[in-house]
Amino acid sequence: MGCKNEFLELLRSTERDGVEDVIQELETQGFFTAPASSNHHLNTEGGLMLHSINTCKAALSIWEGMKNLEPGIEKEVKRESVIIASLLHDVCKIDIYKRSVKKRKNALGNWEDTEGYKVTYKNFPMGHGEKSVIFLLCSGLEMTEAEMLAIRWHMGAWGINMNSYEDQRCYDTSRCLYPLVSIIQAADSLAASILERSEAEIDEL
Ligand SMILES: [Fe+2]
Ligand SMILES: [Fe+2]
């Protein structure tokens, strides 16, 4: 509950047109209980919301740090844009995880049933960042071009079709035009690799 309030407070602090419509849509589609993955970090109920908050905290820290190095950033990248793009970058995951029972070997080497999630893309298979952008626009959120591009390209090189010259050029161009793109990409990576690292995950490497 604390996490949900934190998420809502951050989002409402932007005072952006359409925020209440998006919150309604997130509620209806189960965002606040969805996991962030099926097998990796935060694969538990509420994981997606927690990952979004972590990404937002990392993004705000990066933004603050970069302002010290490059004061012009404060004018170019607004705090509200950092919050909108980071908190909502992964809303595409809202409907891809379904509860399932999986077989897993226990410490004694015996197979046992464990509760988990399986992935399905049958609800609107639009991709990743691009699905988030479309979800938000269809929900009625006002977004700047920089915010849309930061969400679209938040996976960085991992989300680019390397056979597509256009993808590569669009990603590079977005990064050059809008520093928000690099901030969100770095924040997403730092949230997963530093804030959400677990002992169990390290053991399984
Ligand atoms: Fe993502
Ligand atoms: Fe993410």
**How far is the first residue's CA from the last residue's CA?**
32 Å
- Please give the share of residues in helix: 40-55%
Q: What is the arithmetic mean of pLDDT?
A: 94
- As a whole number of angstroms, the C-alpha radius of gyration is 18 Å
**Gross geometry:** globular
Small molecules (ligands, ions, cofactors) in the structure: fe (ii) ion
Poorly predicted ranges (pLDDT <50, ≥5 residues)? none
Number of domains: 1
* Number of helical elements: 10
Structural class: mainly alpha
> What is the β-strand count?
2
**How do the strands line up in the largest sheet?**
1-2
Largest sheet features: 2 strands, antiparallel
Order of helices and strands: HHHHHEEHHHHH
Residue fraction in strands: 5-15%
Describe what you observe in this structure.
The chain is mostly helical. The protein has one domain (2-199). The protein has helices spanning 2-12, 19-29, 47-69, 73-76, 79-87, 129-139, 145-152, 165-177, 179-195, 199-203, and strands at residues 97-105, 111-119. A hairpin with a 5-residue loop joins strand 1 and strand 2 (111-119). The longest helix is centred in the N-terminal third of the chain and has 23 residues, at 47-69. The radius of gyration is 18 Å and the shape is globular. The model has no long low-confidence stretch (mean pLDDT 94). It binds fe (ii) ion (2 copies). The site of one fe (ii) ion (FE2) has 5 residues, from helix 3.
